[in-house]
Amino acid sequence: MYSKLIIRDRCFDWGQRTYLMGVLNVTPDSFSDGGKFNTPAAALSQAEALVAAGADIIDVGGQSTRPGAEQISLEAELNRVVPILEVLRSKISVPISVDTTRASVAKASVEAGADIINDISGGTFDPQMLPTVASLGVPIVLMHIRGTPQTMQQMTEYQDLLGEISSFLAQQITIATDLGLEREKIIIDPGIGFAKKYEQNLEILRRLGLLRSLNCPILVGVSRKSFIGRILNQPDPKARVWGTAAACCAAILNGADILRVHDIQEMRDVSLVADAIFREKQYGG
Q1: What is the CATH number of domain 18-278?
Q2: Please, are residues 257 and 245 in contact by the beta-carbon 8 Å criterion?
Q3: Are strands 96-99 and 116-119 parallel, antiparallel or unpaired?
Q4: Which tens digits make up the pLDDT trace of 186-201?
Q5: What is the pLDDT of residues 28-64, one digit of tens each?
Q6: Is residue 196 among the annotated active site residues?
Q7: Has 224 been annotated as catalytic?
Q8: Which of 260, 268, 279, 281 is catalytic?
Q9: Which of 40, 220, 236, 257 has the fewest CB atoms within 10 Å distance of its CB?
Q10: How many C-beta atoms surround the C-beta of residue 4 within 10 A?
């Protein structure tokens, strides 16, 4: 059973409580907050606010992964991410992850102070990603996806949804560990909303516990997503906070270790109460 991971003197003691990854999009076109934090000053202000609200990790993304998003150039991604990482690292002590599918961005990001790589492709878009992360010795989040953000919503037919997600993640875990990545440094993500239809997203949340057999910490990202908007009949992503809260509570009940969210303060309250109810060891705020 996986137990602990130390990142930048922070101990992630899996199973004891839910950890919160705060979303910091430094893109002009993300679905929820595009263009709000794409300067170093704005990004730093938001990151500090996320940490003050209770974020355990800050997740910086320079490439939008919303459905239909176009791939930007390598140079553009580096120019978005690296200067902001350098500013954040000088001011913020919590671990920083970088949401990228490119090995060269991963390497430059770690050199600029990032601690974790969060790859929505599970290491499949760039064949150098897993060897690079193994050589860097940092943790990686491996997410399940089919196709690319441009094509994924046309690739949603599954015979066995959780079985196929689990098989993909098991395959990528094996590849990563064969390349020398320590298993304790692998986190898995079922990829809610990525090549998944409305009903499939709900099924993942209901049956999330099946992924525990992979023996890796589980990250879940439901924050403000369109399946919540459909349930609430709410087209504005920013108005989906309480729907997000319900989905996060379900994720905690069914075994999530990390929640990737925009609304840290609200989800911290959700996590504190859900942890006290569902986890064996209660803890205080």
Answers
A1: 3.20.20.20
A2: no
A3: parallel
A4: 999 999 999 999 999 9
A5: 754 455 556 778 889 999 999 999 999 999 999 888 7
A6: no
A7: no
A8: 260
A9: 236
A10: 11
